[in-house]
Amino acid sequence: MDGMEAPAGIVKRLLLGAAWAPIGVLVAHSVGAHYFGHEPVVDPIMHFAGGAAAAFFVRRSCDLGRGWLGSPTPFAADLLSFGLACTIALFWEFGEQLSDLYLGTRAHTSVGGTLGDLRLGVLGAGLYLLLARLGARLRR
């Protein structure tokens, strides 16, 4: 394979090196909602953390998947991470709405709440990427 790592190897590295963050947010959301309820605290915190975790996952995947994913510059990897984290937040909200429509859940109670969830995901992604960029500069 021209010296490239096998697909199973890259999947393992992505699971161990990047996927732990979004999986952790899902577990924390489930546990927090069970003990404290979704609103008014757990759900907003988890949407913010989910945006940060999604950006972390994509950003780390760019680093861990070099060769498979090309070699984007750090700025391009940040832009890709932000865009995909926002896309993930959007499709998460679509999933919640579909769950409400077809499974009888009550994840969405208002348009304002949905937009707030999206805003928190975007803010989480942006803040993570900003802090990661600042941290990288300080380490240099």
Polypeptide structure, described:
- With 140 residues, the chain is mainly α.
- The protein has one domain.
- The chain is built from five helices and no strands.
- Helix 3 packs across helix 5.
- The longest helix has 30 residues.
- It is globular and about 45 Å long.
- The model has no long low-confidence stretch (mean pLDDT 89).
Radius of gyration: 17 Å
Structural class based on helices, strands and sheet pairing: mainly alpha
Strand proportion: under 5%
The residue ranges in which pLDDT falls below 50 over 5 or more consecutive positions are none
Number of helices: 5
| Termini gap | 34 Å
Q: Report on the biggest sheet.
A: none
Average pLDDT works out at 89
Instruction: Give the tally of β-strands.
Output: 0
Total of domains: 1
SSE order: HHHHH
The helical percent reads over 70%
Morphology: globular
Core attributes:
5 helices; 140 residues; single chain
Q: Would you spell out the secondary-structure blueprint of this structure?
A:
Layout: H1 7-17, H2 20-36, H3 38-64, H4 74-103, H5 111-139
Briefly characterize the structure.
This protein is 81% helix and 0% strand. It is mainly α and 140 residues long.
